[in-house]
Amino acid sequence: MADEALFQFLHNEVIQYVYKSAENGEMENGRCVSKLEHLGFRVGQGLIERFTKDTSRFKDELDVMKFICKDYWTSVFKKQIDNLRTNHQGIYVLQDNKFRLLTQLSSGKQYLEHAPKYLAFACGLVRGGLSNLGVRSIVTAEVSVMPACKFQVMIQKA
Amino acid sequence: MARQSTRSTDSKKMNSELFTLTYGALVTQLCKDYENDEEVNKQLDKMGYNIGVRLIEDFLARSSVGRCQDFRETADVIAKVAFKMYLGITPSVTNWSPAGDEFSLILESNPLVDFVELPDNHSNLVYSNLLCGVLRGALEMVQMAVEVRFAQDTLRGDNVTEIRMKFIKRIEENLPAGDE
């Protein structure tokens, strides 16, 4: 628990920083999300390397996704993904009914407009993790009522 | 099978890796954004300050530590309770000034720098400068103005990491705290 507060505060500061440098005209606002995502990507790459060093080989893509939903999510956000759905054509939807980075924010529709800021880093974490497991993807997130959140993973076929 | 068993046992450590790596990504980004190390140090300190002013609330709520009578007690709480709680380490408190208004925290290990090596062209970067800001911000919220800086850093070739803290003054209750 303890480390977690620290991470959440740091995460908030990172968001603040990225958005503030956008205000100063150093980059356009739309790039903030992708910048945060990129930071998350790097972190995800590092994390997955450490988490998988003792695991057995993955059978297939679904196996990789299961690992992300269970072990990876638990290590990072202290709970599993609540629901994993796929169309078996490279699209996965990961639903977290109580997403850690949103629980402090609101439980409802208040501040909904700010939610994307708090999800970009997490999207990057997922994409970075997958990327180091050899799966190229695009990860987006959507929220209708906080703190529930859906991550959509679109696998990019090479 | 191994996959299942490795997970839950050291989940706490995993989390500090998340923190360490996130911090690393932030410093990397700052180094890209700012040309010189001094600016990066300043920015890290500022962000730390913002964290500190919030973290103190979390700390007081969870630790049941009361008001400190003197700076020595403050030093003990910082080293034995706060550092333990948030970073899982207990720095030693040494090098008291005769007046009792200055001391050093010696960190045997620094979780922030777990996977870090400083390149030669960043010799002025104080990598963990966020910590100084955190300490300053948190203490300011309990009416203590302090000066915090890194006196030694293992990243820069010193034998230990040393944070030097100097008490400046008590902040009067009715004044608005800080100017940032």
TrEMBL record, chain A:
It comes from the Eukaryota. Keywords: Endoplasmic reticulum, Golgi apparatus, Neurogenesis. The keyword DNA repair does not apply. GO terms for biological process: endoplasmic reticulum to Golgi vesicle-mediated transport; nervous system development. Its main location: endoplasmic reticulum. GO terms for cellular component: cis-Golgi network; endoplasmic reticulum; trans-Golgi network; TRAPP complex. It is found in: Endoplasmic reticulum; Golgi apparatus, cis-Golgi network. Belongs to the TRAPP small subunits family. BET3 subfamily. Component of a transport protein particle (TRAPP) complex that may function in specific stages of inter-organelle traffic. Specifically involved in the early development of neural circuitry, likely by controlling the frequency and amplitude of intracellular calcium transients implicated in the regulation of neuron differentiation and survival. This is Trafficking protein particle complex subunit 6B. It comes from Denticeps clupeoides. The lineage of its organism: Eukaryota, Metazoa, Chordata, Craniata, Vertebrata.
UniProtKB/TrEMBL annotation, chain B:
The keyword Cell membrane does not apply. It is found in: Endoplasmic reticulum; Golgi apparatus, cis-Golgi network. InterPro entries: Bet3, NO_sig/Golgi_transp_ligand-bd, TRAPP_component. Keywords: Endoplasmic reticulum, ER-Golgi transport, Golgi apparatus, Lipoprotein, Palmitate, Transport. GO terms for cellular component: endoplasmic reticulum; Golgi apparatus; TRAPP complex. Transmembrane segments: none annotated. The keyword Electron transport does not apply. Its main location: endoplasmic reticulum. One of its GO terms (biological process) is Golgi vesicle transport. Belongs to the TRAPP small subunits family. BET3 subfamily. Homodimer. May play a role in vesicular transport from endoplasmic reticulum to Golgi. PANTHER family: TRAFFICKING PROTEIN PARTICLE COMPLEX SUBUNIT 3. This is Trafficking protein particle complex subunit. The lineage of its organism: Eukaryota, Metazoa, Chordata, Craniata, Vertebrata.
